[in-house]
Amino acid sequence: MTSRPTRRERYERARRRRSNVIAAVSTIVVVGVLVILIPMSPGWDRVRQAFFDGDVFRESFPGLLRAFWLDVKILLWSTPLILIASLLLALARNTRSPALFPLRAFAIIYIDVLRGIPVILLVFLIGFGVPALGLSREWANPLIWGTVTLVLSYSAYTAEIIRAGIDSVHESQRAAARSLGMSSRQTMSTVILPQAFRRIVPPLMNTFVSLQKDVALVSLIGPVEILRQAGIDKATYANFTPYVAASVIFLALTIPCTRLADYALARQRRRTGATTIA
Amino acid sequence: MTAEPISTPTDPPLLKLQLRTVFKAFGDTTVLDGIDLDVAQGDVITLIGASGSGKSTLLRCMNMLEPVDDGEVLFDGVDIAEPGLDPDPIRRRIGMVFQSFNLFPHMTVTDNVAVGPRKVLRVPKGEARASALEMLTRLGLSARADAYPDQLSGGQQQRVAIARSLAMNPEVMLLDEITSALDPELVGEVLDVVRGLKADGMTMLIATHEMAFAREISDRVCFLHQGRILEEGPPSQIFETPREQRTQEFLQRVIDAGRL
Known about the structure:
Chain A contains eleven helices and no strands. Chain A is an all-alpha fold.
């Protein structure tokens, strides 16, 4: 290879330089306008005091982080349970065996009903309804019922994602597996599901991020997790900054998760695949 | 019903496969309209005919990927067209290679070849991989053992697909237009593999558009037209002195297209 750039390389370099300049200029303009215009609005001073108070932020942050641990615990319990439940639901919904018809019918009804109820209503129904059954004290635990609620709701959504993934694997893959003598169960577990899961990583991560945020809804039935803690702090300091601090904590979890998923997917594509089309 | 030993000889000389008035329809369209065919051990039979004449469906019926509507398919004397029969033990013994390869894209080449013996025959992992590598070496693919299917050329992919089938040690191979999706310069490497299989005495049914190859490798050629075997005979007879007018017309079209 000679060191002299090809015609195409020179063209692309010029293009790249040009787009970098444009991006830089437009970013400076937009940020500049925001920085100048927003403080010019009549209520800006009040907003800054109420939402961006540095002292309140520093004081409430450690307590919020501690309260966030409960959200994380609920999340860590819910996620694997949702994956298992939704996989079983998706398989039940796709079953063709007549003996398993009740299972299939159950899956269809379950998915229809639980996808149709807003999570917040489900939190109330489960959170206040189940303890009213008069269970013993150790069962009156918001950690348990919060987790149950999220699993119920999210497994219905996730089941549909998994089902779409299964359906997206071409029939010829099934034919190839069956022609080797694999049973339909072996075909599903070794050929169909591994391909289906790779394809649904982006929507699954989307759902997972959504779940991370919906954990906060559990605060409605009592436990002092981050949203409720932020509410308490808001009352204490008579200032909204704790909500901003809580948002920052959520973002610190959700953004790395989505980046990680994108990275994993890109690596997967590089490893198994041919080149991508620009 | 599958409990009885499948290889019990019923009437010598035993035919490997015997099709008796096989019918198959998709909705209102009759695809196989009474097929009769005898295949002896070691026979290489090619199916030729226009697209839609029923070649692929016939092969798929023999591997029970499509259920037969009526008639019998006797495999070692046992009727495998019987509705409700468990297809898995039969499919283990009949290999199939597809036009579009159908390799498993999430597995390496070696795993593609090893997965059948591992899952179906319960061969231990190390052993299955070792024999997969051996098979790949035989087909000149050992350098690509750790690659993924999408990183291979079409000809290499199809050879891997053949290796995957052979890894199950099948008694019969069904090859469904295995060179139709390949660039012309890649056809040769795949056909060489098939020549090797014939030399090893493999019983094969081959649906193909490669007339020169059909002529070279076949013990018998069947010309299919509208779901029937219109003419059947040794390649020299079919290609040089076809009796049926339809066969003559078909071969003329192939010659006009420069394919013979």
